[in-house]
Amino acid sequence: MNSIAVASDHGGFALKQALVPLLQKEGIKIIDLGAHEFLQDDDYPDYAERVAREVNGGKVKRGILICGSGAGACMAANKVPGIRASVCHDTYSAHQAVEHDDMNVLCLGARVLGLSLAQELCKAFLNASFREEPRYRRRLDMLNEIERRALLNR
Fold it and tell me: What is the sign, positive or negative, of the torsion defined by CA atoms of 17, 20, 24, 26?
């Protein structure tokens, strides 16, 4: 896998700071899009958009976002066309969402899980590949069509 983009707000800052070196030790190239220091009043949409635009623009294939629950960052990332972000707090969902739905942004809740589980989730996410089976392709095409129609109706 090429580089991945990673970012967090204040709610996920400590987890990101601990997780990034562990992923780098496993040979994963990280593009850290912030926060680079703890900022109590920063906002998750800023960081979610940074990661989503890196993925959307093709600079990276995947991204990881960390906020307090994972939910806010997920909602913000999914506003960017081409992003299929999901909150995952179990390893099955972390790989299955890639295999069946071509998830490209993993969202984690730092107030929900610990470092060890976060590392396992990232491994499951990064080691998974989309299965080009007809039913999964059909469903992904349907998601893309919903997005296309929504963008046309602006």
Answer: positive
State how far the Cα of 45 lies from the Cα of 66, in Å rounded to an integer.
11
Q: Does residue 67 carry a catalytic annotation?
A: yes
Given 67, 88, 107, 122, the catalytic residue: 67
106 strand-pairing partners: 64, 86
Per the CB < 8 A criterion, the answer to whether 106 and 94 are in contact is yes
CB atoms within 10 A of CB 141: 10
Tokens matching residue 117: 């589980």
CB-based contact 47:35 (threshold 8 Å): yes
Q: What pLDDT does 120 receive?
A: 98
Which parts of the chain register pLDDT below 70? 1
Sequence letter at residue 142: M
User: How high is the pLDDT of residue 1?
Assistant: 55
Confirm whether 100 is a catalytic residue.
Answer: yes
User: Which residue blocks in the chain are alpha helix, DSSP H?
Assistant: 13-25, 44-56, 71-77, 91-101, 115-127, 134-152
Catalytic residue among 36, 88, 100, 122: 100
Where do the H-state alpha helices sit in 64-131?
71-77, 91-101, 115-127
